[in-house]
Write a structure and sequence with these properties.
Layout (H helix, E strand, L loop, with lengths): L5 E4 H31 L7 H25 L1 E4 L12 E5 L10 E7 L10 E3 L3 H6 L7 E6 L2 E11 L2
Amino acid sequence: MAEKKVKLTQEGYDNLVKKLENLKSVRRIEVAERLKAAIALGDLSENSEYVDAKNEQAFLEGEISDLEKQIRNSDIIHEEKTDTISLGSTVKIQFPKNKEGISPEDTYMIVGSTEADPDENKISDESPLGSALIGKKAGDEVQVHAPAGVLQYKVLEIVKD
């Protein structure tokens, strides 16, 4: 069975590669040293430091394996400079009016789910807002179904760097 492709921007791909290199070159050595020190304490059957170090090593190797798989199966998104929103697009949108009657605006980048980070204004193409924005143009309005009801957003601009 073919593995699912992981959609990433070039920046997201580079960050995964950097994280993998750090885990392999720095964290592996730290965990190995910790394991070595725990073994030196003797009696492994009742050695909590050894058990903790072994668990940390297993977790680390699992994380390395996951990152290698994501990198191997990555599909790098290249933002197309078009008038239509697609994966990799940066868009400025207007939110529905708040209690004060103000319609706030914000800018988001549409990314794959692996790279989504709301704190950095990166939203997944699979999220309700992200999927509603795909294929739209500046001036279009989109409706998003949310627990609070249907919310109306307006695409103000597709940001071109």
